[in-house]
Amino acid sequence: AQRVTQPEKLLSVFKGAPVELKCNYSYSGSPELFWYVQYSRQRLQLLLRHISRESIKGFTADLNKGETSFHLKKPFAQEEDSAMYYCALRGGSQGNLIFGKGTKLSVKP
Amino acid sequence: GAVVSQHPSWVICKSGTSVKIECRSLDFQATTMFWYRQFPKQSLMLMATSNEGSKATYEQGVEKDKFLINHASLTLSTLTVTSAHPEDSSFYICSARRLAGAPDEQFFGPGTRLTVL
């Protein structure tokens, strides 16, 4: 079965601290994984995708096929990073996204 | 950048009435659009996949006769909630898949808050 698991509903850190949002997936084929972010009162937007292997707003995520994980990391969290983060897997023949339940990141001053 | 709009942004209706929600890709063509539903403090659940000019593909457990989807053009998909009931109250979000150009990406609308009284 195709599934995305984000074990933490809420993650609270202080500004400047490292942050890691966990994501594990279950997929029988070759996965395509994404992180989406939703800031307060804004629409969902793409943060990064694993195939790009890029760093966006200081965030990185590495696909670990052995551990079936795609954790999102940032070495120094900023207050403006506070948002809802969703890990997603592209599955199905039409490219639909399967979302995890999301992790709310709260960065305190 | 690619923008997806939804109209209305919120709607309140009486039980038993029908409500139509529009999803438009403003500056790109989308052969595929997706409709999601999001309950409070929960994740997005895919309801259906809408392809231009063909019937929508519904996810298991989603009543196709209740949630009518029409994708009449490359920039417009509509979701009609028929005979709405209070349990249909939710946040409905559409996304449009841009295939032309790289990379292949989905862009999300701002969502429509439906409240059924």
SSE layout and pairing:
The complex is a heterodimer of chains A (109) and B (117).
Chain A: E1 3-5, E2 10-14, E3 19-21, E4 24-26, E5 32-38, E6 45-49, E7 60-61, E8 72-74, E9 83-91, E10 96-99, E11 103-108
Parallel strand pairs in A: 2-11
Antiparallel strand pairs in A: 1-4, 3-8, 5-6, 5-9, 7-8, 9-10, 9-11
Chain B: E1 4-7, E2 10-13, E3 19-25, E4 32-38, E5 44-51, E6 57-58, E7 67-73, E8 76-81, E9 90-98, E10 105-108, E11 112-116
Chains forming the largest contact: A-B, 20 and 21 residues
The gross shape of chain B turns out to be globular
| Overall strand count of chain A | 11
Largest sheet of chain B: 7 strands, mixed
- Low-confidence sequence ranges of chain B: none
What structural category do the secondary elements of chain B indicate? mainly beta
* Gross morphology of chain A: globular
Structural class of chain A: mainly beta
What's the count of strands of chain B? 11
Protein architecture, described:
The complex is a heterodimer of chains A (109) and B (117). Chain A has 109 residues and is mainly β. Chain A has no helices and eleven strands. Chain A has strands spanning 3-5, 10-14, 19-21, 24-26, 32-38, 45-49, 60-61, 72-74, 83-91, 96-99, 103-108. In chain A, the strands form three sheets. In chain A, strands 2, 5, 6, 9, 10 and 11 form a six-stranded mixed sheet that branches. In chain A, a hairpin with a 4-residue loop joins strand 9 (83-91) and strand 10. The radius of gyration of chain A is 13 Å and the shape is globular. Chain A starts with a strand and ends with a strand. Chain B is globular. Chain B is 0% helix and 54% strand. Chain B has strands spanning 4-7, 10-13, 19-25, 32-38, 44-51, 57-58, 67-73, 76-81, 90-98, 105-108, 112-116. In chain B, the strands form two sheets. In chain B, strands 2, 4, 5, 6, 9, 10 and 11 form a seven-stranded mixed sheet that branches. Chain B has a four-stranded antiparallel sheet with strand order 1-3-8-7, with no helix packed on it. The model of chain B has no long low-confidence stretch (mean pLDDT 91). By secondary structure, chain B is mainly beta. The A-B interface holds A 36, 42-46, 49, 51-52, 86, 92, 94-102 and B 32, 34, 42-46, 49, 51, 57, 93, 95, 97, 103-106, 108-111.
